């Protein structure tokens, strides 16, 4: 996909997002509708077969089509109306997630925004996959991508602890201190899960976007690399990469020193834009 730049003082490269082509949308909608039609026909066929097998003492598909050691529910063997409603919802949910990933919009979202998107998709009233819905949704996301990106930076900033003088409430400094990033016991260090880990991943994501680089997959992001470092390095409690130097301590806190002051200054410009009263304090 092509790279798109958003001019917002300062210029921010916000990734490779673009509105999905009309040809792709037509193929998605046509394929989705054809699949649902065939699924509905399959459910009716299974119901007819079950009626036949039951009439000759062979019970229904619930009995002869399911593995006995893993017998569980299957929507293909339910009432057509109820089954098609759930199957349609499940199919549309998967398509929305796939298109969000392919569009690149998910990479602009911080953990909070991604969680909200997932929660919206888990409901029963998700938008139907149609050409109009896809176009309107991704046009809206496309037009708001700069706001989504900047909100991610603000959320990371607000999530810092102000218990440490290093963490200026006015801007990102050369170093920040975070609590509860790691855990320590008699077996050594362990990287904690949860929102603090997400915050570190969000911070790396913002720096990559500002640096015009691709977002690393979850399996290779800074938290994955830090976790691997912790599990392999028994003598060193310092992790280094392109953007960070992270020193972690037995009490669970970590000192995160930034290696790219130019990118940190860009983040501070965004913070100052949203919180102009802090500019003088900087």
Entry keywords:
282 residues; alpha+beta; 2 domains; four-stranded antiparallel β-sheet; 50% helix; 11% strand; disordered N terminus; DUF4942 domain-containing protein; DUF4942
Descriptive overview:
There is one protein chain. This protein is of the alpha+beta class. It has helices at residues 22-55, 61-64, 80-103, 111-122, 131-143, 145-158, 195-210, 222-232, 261-274; strands at residues 5-7, 11-13, 175-178, 182-185, 188-191, 238-240, 244-248, 254-258. The protein folds into two domains: 13-144, no CATH class; 159-278, no CATH class. 50% of the residues lie in helices and 11% in strands.
Compact overview of the structure:
The protein is α+β, with helices and mostly antiparallel strands and 282 residues long. Helix content is 50%, strand content 11%.
Write the layout of secondary structure elements.
Elements: E1 5-7, E2 11-13, H1 22-55, H2 61-64, H3 80-103, H4 111-122, H5 131-143, H6 145-158, E3 175-178, E4 182-185, E5 188-191, H7 195-210, H8 222-232, E6 238-240, E7 244-248, E8 254-258, H9 261-274
Antiparallel strand pairs: 1-2, 3-8, 4-5, 6-7, 7-8
């Amino acid at each position: 996909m092509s790279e798109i730049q958003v001019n917002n003082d300062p210029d921010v490269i916000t990734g490779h997002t673009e509105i999905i082509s009309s040809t792709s949308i037509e193929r998605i909608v046509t394929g989705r509708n054809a699949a649902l039609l065939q699924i509905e026909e399959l459910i009716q066929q299974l119901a007819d077969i079950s009626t036949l097998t039951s009439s000759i003492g062979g019970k229904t598909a619930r009995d002869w089509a399911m593995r006995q050691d893993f017998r569980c529910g299957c929507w293909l063997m339910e009432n057509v109306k109820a089954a098609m409603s759930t199957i349609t919802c499940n199919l549309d949910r998967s398509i929305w997630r796939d298109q969000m990933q392919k569009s690149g919009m998910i990479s602009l979202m911080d953990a909070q925004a991604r969680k909200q998107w997932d929660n919206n998709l888990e409901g029963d009233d998700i938008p139907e996959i149609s050409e109009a819905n896809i176009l309107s949704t991704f046009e809206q996301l496309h037009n708001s991508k700069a706001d989504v990106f900047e909100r991610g930076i603000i959320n990371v900033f607000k999530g810092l602890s102000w218990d440490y003088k290093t963490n200026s409430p006015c801007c990102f400094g050369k170093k920040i201190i975070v609590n509860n990033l790691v855990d320590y016991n008699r077996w050594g260090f362990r990287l904690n899960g949860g929102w603090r880990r997400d915050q570190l991943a969000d911070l790396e994501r913002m720096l990559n976007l500002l640096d015009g680089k691709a977002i690393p997959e979850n399996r290779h992001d800074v938290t994955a690399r830090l976790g691997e470092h912790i599990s392999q390095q028994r003598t060193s409690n310092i992790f280094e990469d392109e953007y960070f130097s992270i020193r972690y301590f037995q009490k669970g806190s970590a000192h995160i020193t930034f290696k790219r002051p130019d990118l940190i200054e860009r983040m501070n410009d965004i913070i100052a834009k949203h919180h102009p009263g802090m500019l003088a304090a900087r």
